[in-house]
Write a structure and sequence with these properties.
Strand content of chain A: over 45%
Mean pLDDT of chain B: 92
Structural class of chain B: mainly beta
Radius of gyration of chain A: 14 Å
Number of helices of chain A: 0
Order of helices and strands of chain A: EEEEEEEEEEE
Distance between the termini of chain A: 40 Å
Distance between the termini of chain B: 34 Å
Helix content of chain B: under 10%
Order of helices and strands of chain B: EEEEEEEEEEE
Oligomer: heterodimer
Strand content of chain B: over 45%
Largest sheet of chain B: 7 strands, mixed
Largest sheet of chain A: 6 strands, mixed
Number of strands of chain B: 11
Shape of chain A: globular
Number of strands of chain A: 11
Mean pLDDT of chain A: 92
Largest interface: A-B, 27 and 33 residues
Shape of chain B: globular
């Protein structure tokens, strides 16, 4: 059974501050690490798919890094805005097929305080 | 369509009744995935399809759960004789055929909330 862990479980951040959170995953048989942004009752929105050790990806104020040797990824949000309030999920893909099933972490629930 | 569509949004069933959920993947996507979300945001993989063929069913409960993806029809997930523990949000996702070494995102629908009373 794969273990994908996210921390912290929840986080409150003042508007304008920057923040980051962690996803840890098995370092063996690594193929891909996905990040999703999810608001309850909506579709999870894909942010990044990362496959290479040392990968860094950026989308606006959100960026992510990947360390496959030690089995962790960080998600950073710069200058938090109220619309960043959501649950951020990471998911581990363990097959080289490219259309593998995903094993999800339990998410980090982010609340931005105006 | 450009989004994964799931119907219905909400479904309420008495214990022992049948439940059927539908998913229309994004047009042109070859892969369809079903995930079950019970508690604390944990999305649990159930089954995936490549076109109308089962691709990976390692997460499917052996009894009561079945799924299909038939040509020119929405994919479906059916639960016979529902139990209280089947209450969950069921998400469908679709993905295009992989090209080269590119890893594809899975595009998710908004989910169907099943409540078993």
């Amino acid at each position: 059974i794969l273990n994908v862990e996210q921390s912290p479980q929840s986080l409150h951040v003042q508007e304008g501050d920057s923040t980051n959170f962690t996803c840890s995953f098995p370092s063996s048989n690594f193929y891909a690490l996905h990040w999703y942004r999810w608001e309850t009752a909506k579709s999870p929105e894909a942010l990044f798919v990362m496959t290479l050790n040392g990968d860094e990806k950026k989308k606006g104020r959100i960026s992510a890094t990947l360390n496959t040797k030690e089995g962790y990824s960080y998600l950073y949000i710069k200058g938090s805005q109220p619309e960043d309030s959501a649950t951020y999920l990471c998911a581990f893909g363990d097959s080289n097929f490219g259309n593998e099933k995903l094993t999800f972490g339990t998410g980090t629930r982010l609340t931005i305080i105006p | 369509g450009e989004e994964v569509a799931q119907t219905p949004k909400h479904l309420v069933r008495g214990e022992g009744q049948k439940a059927k959920l539908y998913c229309a993947p994004i047009k042109g996507h070859s892969y369809v995935f079903w995930y079950q979300q019970v508690l604390k945001n944990e999305f649990k993989f159930l089954i995936s399809f490549q076109n109308e063929n089962v691709f990976d069913e390692t997460g499917m409960p052996k009894e009561r759960f079945s799924a299909k993806c038939l040509p020119n029809s929405p994919c479906s997930l059916e639960i016979q004789a529902t139990k209280l523990e089947d209450s969950a949000v069921y998400f469908c996702a679709s993905s295009p055929r992989p090209t080269g070494n590119n890893y594809n995102e899975q595009f998710f629908g908004p989910g169907t909330r099943l409540t078993v009373l």
